[in-house]
């Protein structure tokens, strides 16, 4: 009986201690399995909630490998014993009677290597001269030389504009989304956030201008029957509230008379920048952000940039975003130096109150 009581007490002790431990291990194992099978969802949740990305996590983990090394510790390469140098062997002596090797050519010999050989009496033997290469007759063409390829990143600003580039400017943006864009993008609020963030990154790189999205609103305009001028006038009447500029997005068919958008371009001597832009989606743009090329173009008009419509100009042929959308496009957005200068010179001016602007269509 005492033995049975001891066995029963041992069983109860194992149940009391082992059951919680087994539950903890099961939960831990289940968490590992869920994390491994839903890795993409977990990373997406971290990115949306905490602002982390997998690239940032990897960069932070491997950013300072030297900082984790304890003082006095050596790397594996430093701990590895140095390989012994291979013993040098003297060249074996040449057997007796072997003729000496030919002498190495000196500098004078190198100079005279191409000279004709001398005869036994000291006179040089004449050589037959090589025939001259055939003459090439240049062919004249009327084609202009192709422009230098557009850069893949923002070029350095001119010395007189470096201070302007370094000046940070934040522009508050309010976006109105019509029925056609909401139908094309069911996640239209998230789409507008991605669109403005992309434009802000590009303008920040080229001009030091950042866009802060302060509002996304429904735009109750008819889905058809309204011209680009009508839509632009409606945007002008919309309240800006806390925003500096107002942007309207639409996916309706392009207005043939006004390209793919309208931007309120200021006069060259105006103390104000433009404040209203109408942006169409373009069918030949990236389907992920079909409004982005037109948005970059119309925002440029607000800061005084001008259209690059001459097909023979370098701005057009190299793919400036101020050129029409049928112009060649580089792999990354790029703006020509003249329009970049115009925007940098006006970037810190205030935005026009109502009726202090003129329209400029793309």
What do these coordinates show?
The chain is an alpha/beta fold. Among the domains are: 2-45; 167-345, Collagenase (Catalytic Domain) (3-Layer(aba) Sandwich), CATH 3.40.390.10. It has 12 helices and 6 strands. A 6-stranded mixed sheet has the order 2-1-3-5-4-6, sandwiched between helices. The radius of gyration is 37 Å and the shape is elongated. It starts with a helix and ends with a strand. Residues 63-69, 80-92, 103-123, 136-152 and 356-362 have low confidence and may be disordered.
* CATH secondary-structure class of the domain at 167-345: Alpha Beta
Shape: elongated
Give the SSE order as H and E letters: HHHHHHEHHEHEEEHHHE
Distance between the termini: 99 Å
CATH superfamily (homologous) name of the domain at 167-345: Collagenase (Catalytic Domain)
How large is the radius of gyration?
Answer: 37 Å
Largest sheet, if any? 6 strands, mixed
Structural class: alpha/beta
Taking all residues together, what is the mean pLDDT? 77
Write the layout of secondary structure elements.
Layout: H1 2-37, H2 39-50, H3 54-61, H4 76-79, H5 107-111, H6 162-166, E1 169-177, H7 179-184, H8 188-207, E2 209-218, H9 228-237, E3 245-250, E4 261-265, E5 276-280, H10 292-302, H11 314-318, H12 337-346, E6 358-361
Parallel strand pairs: 1-2, 1-3, 3-5
Antiparallel strand pairs: 4-5, 4-6
How do you describe this structure in short?
The protein is of the alpha/beta class and about 350 residues long.
List keywords for this structure.
6 strands; alpha/beta; 362 residues; 12 helices
